[in-house]
Amino acid sequence: MILSCLHDVRLILVTSLAFFCAGMVKASPTLPPHGARSRPAEFPVVDVPSHLNPYPDKPRLTFSSSGTFKLTVFSDLHYGENPWDDWGPQQDANSTRLMRSVLAAEKPDYVVLNGDLITGENTFRENSTTLIDCTVVPLNEAKIPFSSTQGNHDNQRNITHLEEIQREQLDSYLSYTRTAPPGIGGEGGEGTYWVPVYEKATDLTPALILWFFDSRGGWSPGPTSAPLPDWVDATVAEWIKHETAVMEAGWDSVEKRERGALAFVHIPPHAIESVQKTLNTTVNPGLNADTLAQGSTQATADPSSAGNDQPFWDALNANIKNLHAVISGHDHGNEWCAREPSKDVIFCFDKHSGYGGYSSPGWGYGVRNIIFTSADPASGLETWILLEGGQTRARVTLDKNYDR
Ligand SMILES: *[C@@H]1O[C@H](CO)[C@@H](O)[C@H](O)[C@H]1NC(C)=O
Ligand SMILES: *[C@@H]1O[C@H](CO)[C@@H](O)[C@H](O)[C@H]1NC(C)=O
Ligand SMILES: *[C@@H]1O[C@H](CO)[C@@H](O)[C@H](O)[C@H]1NC(C)=O
Ligand SMILES: *[C@@H]1O[C@H](CO)[C@@H](O)[C@H](O)[C@H]1NC(C)=O
User: Where does the record place the Calcineurin-like phosphoesterase domain (predicted)?
Assistant: First the structure.
């Protein structure tokens, strides 16, 4: 029973996990996370609507005392390929090794799992969510708060985004993943939410909002499985307008301060496809080995859906102020950042982190690191690719002058 990534009673439910997350020790997910500091008890409770305090039972995420906030993004982990063969479980053991070594070396304040946590096509109805336990183990061990988006491979006949989110929430107190309100996100698109980050634990209002959007895709569950739309649903555009209005009304009445923002969505917005044609390796360094085509960006799997991610893309850029960047995975051979000219917004690819999922010799496996060196939303941030062996590349400073 020591060889399990499960916490307490659920051990009984999924003992087979011992074989799948082999070598993973039980970790307590109940300790306060690294990077998260509790609000002092004596601090006066400020009357902001409860809606603006979405994590009343979790520590507040804050910048460090020296004013930094560091994120590490694991993307496209693709756990669970061919469990009936040797190579699938070996890939997963490698992915877990990568997560552990990166977390130990980088000690980020927050981790994002940016979609395709598992390869749902290869999973079984009765135990597919046990793979989520495996993705959470290294985070529980390192005690680092995190949240996830879900990808097209996370919606399949035997698994759904909602099932993954609920399992993750059960697995870890450190998970800040939430679901969108009822009616928002469309079928298979529940993983849309935001996470506030405060400069200091005692601050009245946050300095940074992390936004997470569900770009759906994949297949609906069950025997009558059908393709799901591969774009962020138009209802999310309305939700963005609503949330930003509530934030402005609630927070700005308490304290007038600008907030920064960073957005994560698994499948890149369609507007990114044309950006690839104008890359300059000096300004936009990093692997550029995946030519964006049908299926690479939102609303392209079915040509008749062209333009369907536009309401989301418009609302995101019109309503979320001080948006530092939009960050996606999905295309494993791309690592670059570039400015999207029509919205004047920076886009970055992640780094393929999982040994599962498609790859090519020389691409390697790693993460995208992001560091804020100030809570001032006018100041830029630094980002770079870190490979499993420790090599770094494609370091850029994302600020108002980047890629003009
Ligand atoms: C696991 O990682 C090792 C060391 O990098 C590598 O040699 C091996 O091919 C990987 N195995 C799989 C199945 O990905
Ligand atoms: C889904 O799960 C069922 C039950 O374990 C299994 O028979 C089937 O092969 C799985 N995969 C798909 C794609 O249906
Ligand atoms: C899930 O169940 C299938 C079929 O019983 C088995 O082959 C597979 O190894 C199990 N996977 C996990 C992650 O427990
Ligand atoms: C790429 O950008 C660098 C730095 O701004 C510039 O010097 C160079 O001329 C650009 N290359 C091309 C082909 O535009």
Answer: 70-333
* Most ligand 3 atoms within 8 A of CB, residue of 4, 11, 16 to mutate: 16
Contact indicator for 308, 301 with CB cutoff of 8 Å: no
Minimum-distance ligand to the CA of 156? 2
Distance CA 5, CA 16 (A): 11
| From 281, 283, 339, 401, mutation site for ligand 4 pocket: most ligand atoms within 8 A of C-beta | 283
101-150 residue pLDDT tens: 999 999 999 999 999 999 999 999 999 999 999 999 999 999 999 999 99
* Rounded Cα distance, 161 and 154, in Å: 6
* 349 occurs within a structural domain: yes
Q: Cα–Cα distances in Å, from 205 out to 41, 46, 258, 260, 293?
A: 17, 10, 10, 12, 41
Domain with 313, as residue range(s), is 2-30+46-398
**Within-domain flag for 374:** yes
The residues near 169 (Cβ < 8 Å, ≥ 6 apart) are: 175, 177
The tally of domains found in the chain comes to 1
**DSSP per residue, 87-137:** HHHHHHHHHHHHHHHHHHHH--SEEEEES--B-GGG--TTTTTHHHHHHHH
Q: Please name the residue whose Cα sits nearest to atom 10 of ligand 3.
A: 127
Q: Is residue 40 part of a domain?
A: no
**Could you tell me if 98 and 73 are in contact, meaning their C-beta atoms sit under 8 angstroms apart?**
no
For residue 385, is it left (φ>0), alpha (ψ between -120 and 50) or beta?
beta
3-class secondary-structure state, position 328: strand
Q: What is the number of the ligand closest to the CA of 338?
A: 4
Counting from 1 in the atom list of ligand 3, the atom nearest the Cα of 84 is 7
Q: What is the best residue among 157, 159, 220, 225 to mutate for testing ligand 2's pocket, by most ligand atoms within 8 Å of CB?
A: 157
Sign, CA torsion 136/357/108/146: negative
CATH code of the domain containing 259: 3.60.21.10
Instruction: Give me the DSSP letters along 272-292.
Output: HHHHGGG--TTTS-S-B----
Q: What is the pLDDT of residues 297-317, one digit of tens each?
A: 999 999 999 999 999 999 999
Separation CA 27–CA 95 (nearest Å): 18
- Assess if residue 144 is contained within a domain: yes
